[in-house]
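Retro notes (design track)

What went well: tokenization of the new backbones is finally stable.
What didn't: we kept losing track of which sequence belonged to which structure.
Fix going forward: every design gets posted as structure first, then sequence, in one message. First example under the new rule, 169 residues:
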């Protein structure tokens, strides 16, 4: 929960013109190191986004190094429509109680994969593991939603090295 508490602190200090953000837990599976929470107001509130849930998965390497992956799920707009996140996972370590972005360390090929998947004309979608250590990255049809998810890549966590291997499916 240290990572989540750091996220809460970070968001409560953020101001996007509409006051501070608050995070509300939706799902808490501490045993498996998995959380789902919601931003209020949503991160893109000024752009008409009402609701923005996000997942967080906790990873621990054999050497004791701890970090989390986060993934935005979707954005519910004021008009009732849903926009799929279109985002790849982000990775954070905790240093002195503050989240430090380590995405380029844990996922150095993210910009290449983002570019490749964006060309397909579908929305990028990331599934973090509630159990296990493999992150699924793929595409979904914007109109059909999550039921159309097609995994294209897996980020397979190697507990011994503390790094991910990118596997194209």
């Amino acid at each position: 929960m240290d990572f989540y508490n750091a996220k809460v602190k970070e968001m409560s200090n953020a101001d996007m013109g509409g006051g501070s953000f608050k995070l509300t837990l939706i799902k808490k599976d501490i045993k498996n190191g998995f959380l789902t929470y919601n931003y209020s107001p949503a991160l893109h509130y000024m752009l008409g986004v009402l609701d923005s849930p996000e997942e967080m998965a906790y990873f621990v390497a054999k050497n004791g190094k701890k970090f989390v992956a986060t993934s935005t799920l979707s954005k519910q707009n004021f008009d009732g429509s849903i926009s799929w996140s279109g985002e790849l996972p982000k990775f954070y370590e905790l240093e002195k109680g503050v989240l430090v972005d380590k995405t380029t360390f844990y996922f150095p090929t993210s910009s290449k994969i983002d570019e490749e998947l964006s060309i397909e004309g579908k929305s990028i979608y990331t599934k973090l593991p509630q159990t296990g250590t493999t992150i699924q990255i793929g595409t979904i049809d914007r109109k059909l939603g999550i039921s159309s998810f097609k995994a294209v890549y897996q980020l397979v966590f190697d507990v011994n090295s503390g790094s991910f291997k990118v596997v194209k499916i």
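Added context from the reviewer: The helical segments are 2-13, 103-106, 110-119.
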